[in-house]
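Reminder to self: tokens first, then the designed residues, so the page reads top to bottom the way the pipeline ran.
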């Protein structure tokens, strides 16, 4: 069976299914582990205290939004709730939806995304279509409200919903079965691209990616024609070698062409959004304290500090200046004080490879 979370990749690149089967499973990334912890808190299998303030805010938003959806869908009736249950669709697609609520002939199924990359909205999302079908067949409902919650997305993309009835579910099943069958073919094609290569374990051994990489390595960047720039930009997004260099050159090309009112097929310059930053923590504290007069001083101080990140190197420098110490001695003092206060932890270092010279045999 193929996983519902990989359906979109197999739709874009059917051959990646067989190629990935040759690769070992990779350990979860730091972001994936953080997402798994937030899912566990929402399903009730982990403690909220394990989360950072930002993660708690994301989890609390998902919970509040879910309660709102339940109220709007079922009214005062409390539906049966299921979290992270493993299901399959006729033995050809499997998955475990994050949340399911069922009452009579209607269900809600939700997929929660805690990453920063926005995913396709629910109405065109293969994973939600598969989850909706699994929910229909498992619980015997006729209507499924499928939704995606993305607490870190822009406000208008944070939640997307689509309602599936019998007709839409029947059509979705035929379509997803086609995706499955195409990926199972011995000659299924490999079609590299940004979306399908992003999480593919087989990228390092993929002959199609290697071909792209070889063409970019040999490329004279000064000869890039504008009509082929968009295709090359996608290729560079997939590959590591010369990626930043190629993308910067194409960016400059598009910028210059638009300044001269020349066509830029496949591109547009989207205005950037300025990012807010706090220049004075003390001024921010005073300004926000006045906005929350009902909170006790110690409560507001605790909540404010939970939003702040502390650079431990900066603390070393602070103590060094205050006590006229060397950075090394200040570091020892800071480490000892933070350990005693119970607020110091260490990240697990990653081992690095070191070349070892072979010793010559004794004469």
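Designed residues (363 positions):
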């Amino acid at each position: 069976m193929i996983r519902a979370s990989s359906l979109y990749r197999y739709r874009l690149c059917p051959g990646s299914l067989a190629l990935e089967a040759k690769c070992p499973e990779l350990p979860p990334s730091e972001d994936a582990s953080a997402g798994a912890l937030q899912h566990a808190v929402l399903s009730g299998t982990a403690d909220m205290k394990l989360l950072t303030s930002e993660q708690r805010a994301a989890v609390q938003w998902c919970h509040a939004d879910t309660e709102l959806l339940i109220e709007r869908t079922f009214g005062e009736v409390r539906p049966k709730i299921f979290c992270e249950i493993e299901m399959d669709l006729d033995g050809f697609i499997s998955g475990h939806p994050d949340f399911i609520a069922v009452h009579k002939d209607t269900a809600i199924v939700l997929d929660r995304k805690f990453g920063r990359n926005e995913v396709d909205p629910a109405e065109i999302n293969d994973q939600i279509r598969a989850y909706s079908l699994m929910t229909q067949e498992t619980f015997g409902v006729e209507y499924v409200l499928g939704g995606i919650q993305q607490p870190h997305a822009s406000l208008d993309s944070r939640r997307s919903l689509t309602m599936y009835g019998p007709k839409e579910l029947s059509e979705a099943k035929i379509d997803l079965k086609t995706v499955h069958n195409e990926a199972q073919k011995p000659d299924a094609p490999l079609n590299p691209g940004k979306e399908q290569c992003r999480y593919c374990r087989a990228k390092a051994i993929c002959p199609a990616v290697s071909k792209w990489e070889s063409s970019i390595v040999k490329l004279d960047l000064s000869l890039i024609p504008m009509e082929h720039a968009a295709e090359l930009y996608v290729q560079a997004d997939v590959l590591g070698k010369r990626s930043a260099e190629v993308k910067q050159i194409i960016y400059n090309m598009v910028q210059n062409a638009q300044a001269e009112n020349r066509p830029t097929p496949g591109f547009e310059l989207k205005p950037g959004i300025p990012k807010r930053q706090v220049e004075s923590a003390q001024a921010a504290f005073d300004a926000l304290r006045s906005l929350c007069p009902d909170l006790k001083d110690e409560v507001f101080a605790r909540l404010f500090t939970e939003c702040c990140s502390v650079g431990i190197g900066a603390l070393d420098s602070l103590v060094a200046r205050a006590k006229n110490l060397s950075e090394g001695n200040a570091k020892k003092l800071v480490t000892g004080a933070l350990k005693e206060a119970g607020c110091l932890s260490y990240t697990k270092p990653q081992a690095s490879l070191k070349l070892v010279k072979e010793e010559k045999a004794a004469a």
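The chain has a mean pLDDT of 86.
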